[in-house]
């Protein structure tokens, strides 16, 4: 059964033409269609020419959004000894060792990012079934398995995000708030595009970028001209 589309969304969809928009124009339209009664996020949905069931076609990495995420990021750290003190000093929201692992096993998920030191990863591994589906499992690729705890906490609180392509080869990323200026959203979106290009999987064949859509949380999808985004120089976006 087809999902009923609300009148509000129908009206917003009527503002979006069936074409690929120039990047800045698309983001201005995203802001115009963010009419929900709560502060909406800006989302990007990027279809890539990859098949993640092959290990050499998987994409999992991090992006540092120059204009931040617009969100308060809650960071949890699993560590031992002096690294626990370092994490507390660096501003982690939740810090612990085996007792924190037990709390998470019991269902405590009051965090957005989980960082672990390499020496506790054998114990953290048993959380894989819980954390994996939520995209919260620490990984070296994601910058969340490290002894440089203070730097990692600082990076993630400042706007660093981990993302991955889902099993259909689509990347879903929140890249700011709809309340940001279109210019700031463009700077963040450009950083995301450059990160995806820089981390192109070795097994990706043929056309890498298939489509890019942006939307506010409760708004309609707006297609972005992929080539215009990739050709854009950041000096143009600044």
UniProtKB/TrEMBL annotation:
<dbReference type="InterPro" id="IPR002143">
    <property type="entry name" value="Ribosomal_uL1"/>
</dbReference>
<dbReference type="Pfam" id="PF00687">
    <property type="entry name" value="Ribosomal_L1"/>
</dbReference>
<dbReference type="GO" id="GO:0006417">
    <property type="term" value="P:regulation of translation"/>
</dbReference>
<comment type="similarity">
    <text>Belongs to the universal ribosomal protein uL1 family.</text>
</comment>
<keyword id="KW-0699">rRNA-binding</keyword>
<dbReference type="InterPro" id="IPR016095">
    <property type="entry name" value="Ribosomal_uL1_3-a/b-sand"/>
</dbReference>
<dbReference type="GO" id="GO:0019843">
    <property type="term" value="F:rRNA binding"/>
</dbReference>
<keyword id="KW-0687">Ribonucleoprotein</keyword>
<keyword id="KW-0694">RNA-binding</keyword>
<dbReference type="GO" id="GO:0006412">
    <property type="term" value="P:translation"/>
</dbReference>
<dbReference type="GO" id="GO:0000049">
    <property type="term" value="F:tRNA binding"/>
</dbReference>
<protein>
    <recommendedName>
        <fullName>Large ribosomal subunit protein uL1</fullName>
    </recommendedName>
</protein>
<keyword id="KW-0820">tRNA-binding</keyword>
<keyword id="KW-0810">Translation regulation</keyword>
<dbReference type="GO" id="GO:0003735">
    <property type="term" value="F:structural constituent of ribosome"/>
</dbReference>
<keyword id="KW-0678">Repressor</keyword>
<dbReference type="InterPro" id="IPR028364">
    <property type="entry name" value="Ribosomal_uL1/biogenesis"/>
</dbReference>
<dbReference type="InterPro" id="IPR005878">
    <property type="entry name" value="Ribosom_uL1_bac-type"/>
</dbReference>
<dbReference type="InterPro" id="IPR023674">
    <property type="entry name" value="Ribosomal_uL1-like"/>
</dbReference>
<keyword id="KW-0689">Ribosomal protein</keyword>
<dbReference type="InterPro" id="IPR023673">
    <property type="entry name" value="Ribosomal_uL1_CS"/>
</dbReference>
<dbReference type="GO" id="GO:0015934">
    <property type="term" value="C:large ribosomal subunit"/>
</dbReference>
<comment type="function">
    <text>Protein L1 is also a translational repressor protein, it controls the translation of the L11 operon by binding to its mRNA.</text>
</comment>
<comment type="subunit">
    <text>Part of the 50S ribosomal subunit.</text>
</comment>
<comment type="function">
    <text>Binds directly to 23S rRNA. The L1 stalk is quite mobile in the ribosome, and is involved in E site tRNA release.</text>
</comment>
């Amino acid at each position: 059964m087809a999902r009923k589309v609300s009148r509000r969304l129908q009206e917003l969809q009527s503002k979006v033409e069936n074409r690929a928009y120039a990047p800045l124009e698309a983001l201005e339209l995203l802001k115009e269609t963010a009419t929900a009664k709560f502060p909406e996020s800006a989302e990007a949905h990027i279809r890539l020419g990859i098949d993640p069931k092959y290990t050499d076609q998987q994409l999992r990495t991090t992006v540092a959004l120059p204009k931040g995420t617009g969100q308060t990021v809650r960071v949890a750290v699993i560590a031992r000894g002096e690294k626990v003190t370092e994490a507390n000093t660096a501003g982690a929201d939740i810090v612990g060792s085996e007792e924190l692992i037990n709390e998470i096993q019991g269902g405590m998920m009051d965090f957005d990012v989980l960082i672990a030191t390499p020496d506790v990863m054998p114990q953290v591994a048993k959380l894989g079934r819980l954390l994996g589906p939520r995209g919260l499992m620490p990984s070296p690729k994601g910058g969340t398995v490290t002894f440089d705890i203070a730097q990692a906490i600082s990076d993630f609180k400042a706007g660093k995000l981990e993302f991955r392509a889902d099993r259909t080869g689509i990347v879903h990323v929140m890249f700011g708030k709809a309340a940001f200026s279109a210019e700031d959203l463009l700077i963040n979106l450009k950083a995301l595009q450059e990160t995806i290009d820089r981390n192109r999987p070795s097994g990706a064949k043929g056309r890498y970028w298939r489509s890019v859509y942006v939307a506010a949380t409760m708004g309609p999808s707006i297609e972005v001209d992929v080539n215009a985004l990739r050709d854009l120089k950041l000096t143009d976006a600044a």
